[in-house]
TrEMBL record:
InterPro entries: Leu-rich_rpt, Leu-rich_rpt_typical-subtyp, LRR_dom_sf, LRR_domain-containing, LRR_R13L4/SHOC2-like. SMART domains: LRR_TYP. This is LRC18 protein. The lineage of its organism: Eukaryota, Metazoa, Chordata, Craniata, Vertebrata. Residues 222-254 are annotated as: Disordered. The keyword Ligase does not apply. It comes from Sclerurus mexicanus (tawny-throated leaftosser).
Length: 254
């Protein structure tokens, strides 16, 4: 007996009924969210489709027979249980979109043949188990969008960073040194968490001098910006935005 879930059986008739024509005229075979555990052999008879969606299933392996889909421009395998990609994926020379996000891929399980996809514009490798990115991915000169988020990357090769057409590079939630530094960066702007209201007579001379200087700066800013005709004036308070004169005792911190 086979181990693991048996999964849903897909027939050729079912698959034919799941072909849809997208807005750009491409024929898409949509087998997403079907509970599939093994690649349906019957769909090899539909290998002339331009788009194939096998996402959100329980696939553990994509066979080398994927090479039959020579017309494929768009291949979505995200949210499965793939721990490797077949070498034959490199034969899909027309691919412009490949999504293998949210699987169990490691750096070793990325085949070198992936670099043969010279027309690839979008590659999503996010949410996997990658510890590094092969420098050879820098040969994918048409890449515009590269997803590497939620992996275990500690560095990126220059060949990938310097891809000529790359517009979007998502490396969020990786232990990259530059990301760690940003997370540890301390905000240099002091944020006001507490506001104390006091009268001038309660301040020492040095504090009074400092507060008067700050107040003068605020007055200069007020003179430079338009204000309403009605102004509240509380000369004994050092905070011009306060309207608490009648309740000073409740606001004052002793």
């Amino acid at each position: 007996k086979e181990k693991g879930p048996k999964g849903k059986r897909i027939t050729l008739k079912m698959a034919k009924n799941l072909i849809r024509v997208s807005f750009n005229g491409r024929r898409r075979l949509d087998l997403s969210k079907m509970g599939i555990t093994t690649f349906p052999k019957c769909i090899l008879d539909l290998a002339d489709v331009e788009e194939l969606d096998l996402s959100r299933n329980m696939l553990r392996k994509i066979p080398n027979t994927i090479e039959k889909f020579q017309n494929l421009l768009w291949l979505d395998l995200h949210s499965n249980q793939l721990d490797e990609l077949p070498k034959a994926i490199g034969t899909l020379q027309n691919l412009t979109f490949l999504n293998v996000c949210n699987n169990k891929l490691t750096t070793k399980s990325l085949p070198e043949e992936l670099t043969l996809l010279k027309n690839l514009r979008t590659l999503n490798l996010g949410l996997n188990c990658l510890e590094s990115i092969p420098t050879t991915l820098g040969s994918l000169k048409e890449l515009i969008d590269l997803g590497l988020f939620d992996n275990a990357l500690t560095g990126l090769p220059k060949s990938v960073k310097n891809l000529p057409k790359l517009e979007r590079l998502n490396v969020k939630r990786n232990p990259l040194p530059e990301l760690t530094e940003k997370e540890e960066h301390v905000d240099s702007i002091k944020r006001i968490e507490t506001l104390y209201l006091v009268e001038e007579k309660d301040l020492c001379s040095s504090c009074l001098k400092m507060c008067r200087g700050e107040r003068d700066e605020l007055h200069k800013l007020e003179d430079m910006t338009p204000s309403s005709s009605k102004k509240l004036s509380f000369p004994l308070l050092l905070t011009p935005n306060s309207s608490a004169k009648d309740n000073q005792e409740e606001w004052r911190v002793r």
